[in-house]
Design brief:
This protein has 306 residues and is an alpha/beta fold. The protein has helices at residues 40-47, 64-67, 70-79, 95-102, 162-167, 175-179, 217-222, 241-246, 252-262, 283-289, and strands spanning 3-8, 22-27, 30-34, 54-58, 86-91, 112-117, 123-126, 134-141, 147-154, 159-160, 184-185, 191-192, 198-199, 205-210, 228-232, 266-270, 293-295, 300-303. Helices cover 23% and strands 28% of the residues. Helix 7 links the parallel strand 14 (205-210) and strand 15. Bound molecules: zinc ion (2 copies).
């Protein structure tokens, strides 16, 4: 099952005890990172996440609080003896910005592969470099520069049920055939199909990450059915709504409403303003809008279970 850590929860600049917003997602020994602001390599080390397992980096947009930690991160990755390529997904047209940041990283021992994502429409692709069962979707959001929201979906294999195979009298030597997705014919002529011995309806596990955007309805559609929705909440003060939306940001309350509309199981808030020293003071009020909201702090881990 995927293991997730919100490495930092700040927006704009890192603070003492609050690194910039970044997400670590690991599945069966391979990991991806979303965003890499200043200090992300330290946040990774502090959280206990495994930098050496990261083979994919998704960048939301080219603001310093989301990318300026890239040189240090790449150098740390090189220092962890990495030789396999690293894939960086980013909004189309911004590869040169990343190359400029990389120009201060001398002799990285691995190749960096760029994957540019459309800035005007949704996009979906299989994250083979992570696991072929994982699909990544990107969606343009509304910020002061081109910015993408991401969702990561683990599509699960049908699970073979040995008890069911025994009940049906399938000999052990035929289990492997059924397991590989083919039907078998028993000596008495009965045909056993794979769906008769697998656990159906294993729903996909979806995690959505949206930050640096004003709130708008398509975000709820994009996050539909997420087990975990991670969303920015710059402030919890309602009077800041207009100024925040004008700057391409949202309030904690906006995020709660989107999570509710999306039918998400849970919501983690992040990307707090550096002026907001105690975001947790809004928890009680926010739970009235969306009961399963967490005003997270740095280094929050979760394993997404059945
Ligand atoms: Zn930001
Ligand atoms: Zn931004």
């Amino acid at each position: 099952m995927p293991e997730i850590c919100l490495l930092g929860t700040g927006g704009m600049m890192p603070l003492k005890n609050r690194w910039l917003t970044s997400l670590y997602y690991e599945y069966e020994g391979s990991a991806l990172l979303i965003d890499c602001g200043e200090g992300t390599q330290i946040a990774l080390a502090e959280s206990g996440a495994k930098i050496s397992r990261i083979n994919m980096l998704l960048l939301t947009h080219m603001h310093a609080d989301h990318v300026s930690g890239l040189p240090g991160f790449l150098l740390s990755l090189g220092n962890a003896s990495r030789t396999e390529p690293l894939t960086i997904c980013l909004p189309a047209g911004r590869v040169q910005t990343i190359r400029n940041l990389m120009s201060i990283c001398d002799r990285l021992p691995f190749e960096v592969i760029f994957h540019e994502l459309p800035i005007k429409e949704h996009c979906s692709f299989t994250a083979d470099m992570l696991d072929p069962l994982i699909t990544i979707e990107s969606m343009p959001v509304r910020h002061s520069t081109n910015c993408l929201g991401y969702s990561i979906t683990l599509n699960r294999k049908q699970e073979f049920q040995p008890e069911r195979a025994k009940e049906l009298g399938v000999p052990l030597k035929m289990w492997r055939v059924l397991h590989s997705g083919e039907s078998v014919t028993l000596e008495d002529g009965r045909v056993i199909t794979p769906d008769m011995v697998t656990l159906a309806n294993r729903s996909p596990i979806k995690v959505t990450y949206v930050t640096d955007t004003l709130p708008f309805p398509e975000i709820a559609a994009f996050a539909k059915g997420s087990r975990l929705f991670i969303c920015e909440g710059m402030y919890g003060d309602a009077e800041k709504k207009q100024s925040m939306n004008e700057k391409g940001h949202m309030l904690m309350q906006d995020a709660c409403r989107l999570a509710d509309e999306a039918g998400a199981d849970s919501l983690w808030l992040t990307h707090y303003s550096p002026a907001e020293m105690n975001p947790d003071r809004f928890s009680k009020e926010l739970k009235k809008l969306f009961p399963n909201v967490t005003v997270t702090s740095d280094g929050k881990w979760a394993e997404i279970k059945e």
